[in-house]
Each structure stands twice: as structure tokens, then as C-alpha cells.
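Chain A, query sequence.
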Amino acid sequence: MNVAVIILNWNGRNDTLECLKSLQDTGNIIVVDNGSQDDSVTAIREQFPTVTLLETGKNLGYAGGNNIGIEYAFKPGADAVLLLNNDTIVHPHFVQSFIDSAAQNPTIGIWGGYPLRFSDPEKLDHLGGIWNSEKGDFDLVGLNAPVGFHSSQSLDYVCGCSIFIRREVFDKIGHLEPKFFLFWEEADFAMRAKRAGFGIDICYSAILRHKVSASFTGGKPHKKYFWWRGRALWIERNCSSAEKQLLFKNLIYPELLHYKKLFWLSKLQISLSKLLRKKNLLQKQAQLKEYRAILQALSDYFSKTFHSGPDWLFK
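Chain A, predicted structure.
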């Protein structure tokens, strides 16, 4: 089986170099650089000259960047792609484990790896998720579970740090949805694949260590913005009309009102703290930025503005 490993890089020079080093016995590797400004491109070319390096010239997000690599991989005839986060270190025989599992289980279209936490390799990151319509979110399977944890549950998506996908899945359902930019795109893709009849499973022998969200240069506001915007878009794209109406009525709109109240209350508290010269001003300002990020995310969703995020989010 001809498998292309695709690694997306955005200002993650050191992480990407470590990831590539752990893959040094793997043949077909494609790095997609999403407009990095940290000398990533030069370093990758110098240290790993046999790796295919594609430059997008700007940050296209997780889906947009990976789609570039996927299209490139399939032109010469790859049978599958392995989307791998750059903040991972893989164990020996990692790629071969996916190939062996795929050969033995032809009905499975998407495989997830077995991701251990980089900071605590005795615990799992998580295997994937199962949609919970009552809370409008996924229940994570294996989150922080001890090494050796296995699950017989049917997953709706696998952890996005390593995803092995057969070419037939893309041929039938298309590519990753770039509107998500960051978060929820792998869950959207997996759900579309399930509806198309493809199985989803975990390759327990494909072990890797994951640093978890190493790319979040903007911190919590950055993360909250894309999570909330992506969540609303995921519901729109994957829930029935009746479920969507209930979720927006019972969850999204009340949450929007709740965070509006918290935002204005936080602004008032900051004004009072300045007058009284209290010492916890920075903490309150950070909290205000998180509330603002959530409100901006939902505002952008409702206005159908799916960009790389407002500039203030990254300051």
C-alpha cells in the first residue's frame, strides 16, 4: 500500500523537526508549510532534503493546508494518507501498523492512532469522540486513561493528531471542510464518512506521543474562538433540522446570552479594579478576552465569516 504521511507546519520549526526525525525510516513524507515565519522552511530543507515540502504562502488552517497535501499525494497514486500533527513523536513501525490494520480490515475507511500524552506518556490523550446531542458536544473516549486502555465503543471521530484515511473515502465524500480552519474538521469529515458507509476504528499498535495544542500561540482566547465557531458550524452541517433547531434554541442561544452578560460584567469589574487599583487586573483582562473571543466566534458564525480569526485574537 502506497501511503503518504502529511504533516502540516505553521511556525512549528522545532516540533516539526522532532516529528520528522521520528519518521526517518518512512519513505513518502509531505510537509505542508502554512506560511511560517520562523525559518521552518530553511531548516526542513537542510535537515530533511528527501522530504517533499509544499509552501502555501499563507495560513490556510488545518483543513486548507492538509487539503493541499492530500491533493499532491493522490496525483502520483497514493492509496491512503496519514495526517499527522507536527507536535507528535511516533514510535517505531508506526506507519506500518496502519498499513497492516488496513489490509486486514478493508471495510474501515478511517483509522486513528494510539496517542499518549507527551508530558505524561503513561496516559492517553484520547481516542476520539461520540456525539452527545444533549450537550451539543462529543464525549471523549479514553481521555487521560492509563496506557493499555481499549474501547469497544463505536466512535464518531478519531483524535485528529493522527488519522489514516483510504483514498476511497476522499473519492466518495470530498476533502476536509476549510471553513472550520481549526477544530471540528476531523469530526465533520469522519461523520460524513460514516454516513457514506465507511467504518471508523483505532489502530492500537500505532503508538505516538502528542504534545497537545502546541500550535496555540494565541492561548486560550485563540482556542475558544475556533472551538465555538466550529461547534456551531458542525451542528449546522451534521445534525438533522429538528436536532439543529433544538440545539440552537436550548444551548447556543442561551449560551450566547450568558457570555454577553459575563462580558459586560467583566468589563465593569475591570473598570472598578482600575479605580481601586486592585492587583488582579491582568487576570480579569485575560478572562474578558476569552469572553470576547466566544462572542466574536458566534458572531462570525452567524454572519458566515469563516476566516483565520480577528487580529486582536493573536495579540
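The first strand starts at residue 3 and ends at 9. Residues 84 and 162 are 5 Å apart (CA to CA).
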